[in-house]
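Incident log, support desk, overnight shift.

02:14 A customer reports that sequence design results differ from what the structure should imply. Their input is reproduced verbatim below. On-call engineer (initials T.W.) acknowledged and began investigating.
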């Protein structure tokens, strides 16, 4: 029953910061796009990646989404998508379906979700309803307890968290497992209780497969390469599902908005997407671009120019293994970041991040202080990602491409959704065969 007027907020409460409100059981935000201007109302979530617009901001008279900076005018029209560049045209699906009307009367903001013949009431008979949680997408979202996740190796701890002869309790897919390591040395046999298909150690991480795994392990050649130094971040925890986190780690266009205080440069929003190559168990994507390399010692001596070619390679394996490699092609300096996600519970994901750094062939290994600086920077970046995930308030990653609006810069995100669909299908086949 939404053909009515709903008092949603006191007029004095609504300024240029979006306020989440509810009307007829639906979630909206109300905001003034100019100080002292009239009130506008918008649906609660951005159509792009369903981020709550209550976390958005008014910028130059438009409501700007906090994740990738899409901007909406008073009518809900999407007027700017930074990744499309200054001449890009947002697709019509990017527009927000605004409610039929919003009015200010008698000290209240009134909202009519649908066309109504009733005039705005003269006074509110009760307090406004509480703002409901922004709605999840209509289609199914891939969450941390999806049954297909039984059929994969999952990271459950760093190797160093389980000493020889010790035990460790871990959480995976909503269940507790106790891991034990035999013996006196690091290589002692591993067991799990309750019994699992397997427990193993790989890349400095302990992995558990609840039932026969169907995933393809991510290769990390850097781990066995003596030109690389390894630095682990302390494991982090996110109060949200792993799917949207993996989406964030693959997403190159949130930097200027989510990482403005660490790495994001606001003038580098335009994004030229690279092709995606499908591979067994996932995909990879390579792009080359020119960028400054001020830390190259040869730049200071004039041996190499500041502007250098950089190759960025994303490699993904379902469900939650990711590798990002950045190589300066002239010096050979490489930074690789490994991201592994442990779906602990419906609302909890543990995050393992490892940095592998090389100065390039024939050059000394990166100094411990430089590695520590890089690890500290990545921790800050990760904290920003986790904070933005916490604000997302979603239960999983929508796999139906119609639930979100995709632009060319989202190629990797689309590939992620498709790879997880394939992963689910394989998991289902395994379950049917069991
Ligand atoms: S711009 Fe809103 S979620 Fe991407
Ligand atoms: Fe990020």
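02:41 Re-run completed on a clean worker. Output:
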């Amino acid at each position: 029953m939404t053909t009515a007027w709903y008092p949603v907020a006191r007029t004095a409460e609504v300024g240029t910061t979006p306020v989440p409100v509810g009307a007829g059981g639906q979630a909206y935000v109300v905001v003034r796009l100019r100080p002292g201007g009239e009130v506008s109302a918008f649906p609660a979530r951005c159509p792009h990646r369903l981020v709550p617009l209550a976390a958005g901001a008014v910028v130059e008279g438009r409501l700007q989404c906090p994740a990738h900076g899409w901007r909406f005018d008073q009518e809900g029209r999407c007027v700017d998508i930074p990744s499309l560049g200054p001449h890009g045209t947002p697709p019509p699906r990017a527009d927000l379906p605004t409610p039929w009307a919003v009015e200010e009367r008698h000290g209240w903001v009134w909202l009519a979700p649908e066309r109504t013949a009733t005039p705005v009431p003269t006074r509110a008979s009760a307090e406004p309803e509480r703002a409901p949680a922004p709605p999840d997408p209509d289609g199914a979202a891939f969450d941390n307890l999806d049954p297909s996740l039984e059929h994969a190796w999952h990271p459950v701890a760093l190797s160093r968290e389980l000493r020889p002869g010790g035990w460790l309790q871990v959480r995976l897919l909503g269940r507790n497992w106790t891991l034990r390591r035999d013996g006196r040395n690091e290589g002692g046999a591993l067991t799990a209780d309750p019994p699992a298909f397997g427990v193993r150690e790989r890349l400095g991480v302990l992995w558990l497969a609840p039932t026969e795994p169907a995933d393809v392990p991510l290769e990390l050649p850097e781990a066995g390469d003596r030109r690389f130094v390894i630095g682990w971040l302390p494991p982090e925890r996110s109060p949200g599902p792993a799917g949207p986190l993996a989406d964030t780690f693959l997403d190159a266009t949130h930097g200027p908005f989510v990482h403005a205080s660490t790495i994001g440069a606001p003038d580098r929003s335009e994004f030229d997407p690279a092709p995606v190559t499908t591979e067994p168990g996932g995909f990879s994507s390579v792009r080359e671009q020119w960028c400054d390399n001020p830390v190259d010692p040869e730049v200071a001596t004039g041996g190499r120019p500041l502007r250098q070619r950089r190759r960025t390679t994303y490699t993904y394996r379902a469900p939650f293994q990711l590798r990002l490699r950045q190589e300066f092609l002239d010096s050979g300096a490489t930074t690789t970041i490994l991201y592994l996600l442990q779906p602990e519970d419906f609302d909890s994901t543990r995050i393992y991040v490892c940095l592998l750094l090389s100065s390039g062939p024939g050059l000394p290994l990166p100094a411990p202080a430089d590695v520590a600086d890089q690890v500290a920077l990545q921790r800050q970046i990760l904290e920003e990602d986790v904070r933005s995930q916490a604000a997302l308030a979603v239960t999983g990653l929508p796999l139906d491409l119609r639930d979100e609006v995709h632009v060319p810069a989202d190629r990797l995100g689309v590939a992620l959704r498709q790879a997880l669909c394939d992963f689910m299908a394989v998991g289902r086949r395994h379950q049917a065969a069991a």
